[in-house]
Design goal:
2 copies of one chain form a homodimer. Chain A is α+β, with helices and mostly antiparallel strands. Chain A contains 9 helices and 4 strands, in the order βαβαββααααααα.
Chain lengths: 244, 244
């Protein structure tokens, strides 16, 4: 049976981390909210599950994955679940190392979101622009180099070499790292200008993931939506500037 | 061998979610940074691991757990790891439901943190007070009722009854839910005024966890530090007001 991925239509957002794992593994899945609103598909199907008064295990927000009766919520948790099913995670205790890295990526993604929504996720960007400029400045000066420097060291210090975040084979966190690097380039092109020189292992990982046949196919397909200003990674020129 | 918990001394913070699981299970552990700085203890021991250039699996930030050579980073991930070792999580696929809830708690905790640090975690609260008042107001009006209403529904819709978040026995997410409710009462006493009437199942869960013998012993011990204004849950009267 195909996995059902529930996430907003029209943006990559957090759902994209899940899509990359499903696409790499060529796992059968339905991107429910992007299907026509019939046969239990569409965004209404997603909202019906979130608002259900009878489901035993309701999600707080998308993305969530439905596998038969089981609903798995939270991006990193979905990847934990799929990682073991799709052979995109170690079977031993290193799976906790992979998951810890994925949760650190999740923290970075939340901080990226908050550069354009520092006050209220329910308000428009335009209504919190001043605070957004302050937060984005701090992000570029302090948080971005801290996160990227950390992930670069993770690659450097991998005893199996810098080609993967953990161990010597691909895991879901490599795919997510690709997505983060791609998103940061889109949102903060000026701040990321010297990225490849400063973080060569991260740059190489990004390129290696993009070149994987199943990922390359996916990125060239219509299923891969372009980055845009309704997602997490948004390009607002006034929030982007050169890093120190 | 005792687990080694690495977290800042002097505050509950995110480390407290881990402590509650260890204390409930009466698992042997060393709260490394709170030990005297000798024999590889103290905050320096924690920072040495974070800054290590040789460790194969470095953490980004505390808390992290060391179990022999394995370093498990990220609060929810530590609980996932300990949950299976300490019998505080289901063995079947429901463990993903528990973990999804824990990650939703982690999101709430981050939002609580950002009520006092909406612009930069590296700046003082006093230097971002105006933005903090705006963010805290939105948190009280919109986010807090959304999260609490969701968790109340999770209890209500548990097919095994509202005594636990998942299934019919205690899991680590019940312990974390206790901590969140206690912290919210400390930080936002005015906003939480009608909490027990609005969220009766959550209030009952909080009280039931507090009354568990091992937790009650822990809460009465010196190991439980009081909430204070260096932790996540801070009481700043100017950020607290009655909910609608």
């Amino acid at each position: 049976m195909a996995y059902e991925l529930h996430y907003w239509d029209g943006l990559q957002g957090r759902g994209e981390f899940v899509r990359l794992a499903l696409e790499e593994a060529r796992a059968p899945y339905i991107d429910v909210a992007r299907e026509r609103a019939q046969d239990g598909h569409g965004e209404d199907a997603m909202l019906a599950l979130i608002n259900s008064r009878t489901e035993p295990h309701i999600p707080f927000a998308p993305p969530f994955l439905k596998d038969g009766d089981l609903i798995v919520a939270q991006t990193a948790n979905i990847l934990l679940y799929l990682g073991s099913k799709l052979h995109l995670a170690p079977q031993d205790d290193l799976r906790y190392v992979v998951h810890g890295l994925q949760l650190t990526i999740a923290d970075l993604v939340t901080e990226v979101h908050d550069t354009h929504h520092p006050i209220a996720s329910g308000l428009y960007y335009e209504d919190q622009k001043e605070a957004a400029e302050a937060r984005a400045g701090d992000f570029i000066d302090h948080r971005l180099p801290k996160f990227l420097g950390y992930f670069e060291r993770v690659l450097e210090q991998n005893p199996h070499g810098p080609r993967h975040m953990v161990g010597k084979t691909l895991t879901y966190v490599d795919l997510s790292m690709f997505q983060v690097v791609a998103g940061l380039h889109y949102a903060f092109s000026r701040a990321m200008k010297r990225f490849a020189a400063r973080y060569p292992h991260l740059a190489a990982l990004h390129d290696a993931v993009a070149a994987r046949p199943n990922i390359a196919d996916y990125l060239a397909s219509e299923r891969r939506l372009p980055f845009n200003e309704t997602g997490i990674f948004r390009h607002y020129p006034e929030l982007d500037r050169a890093a120190h």
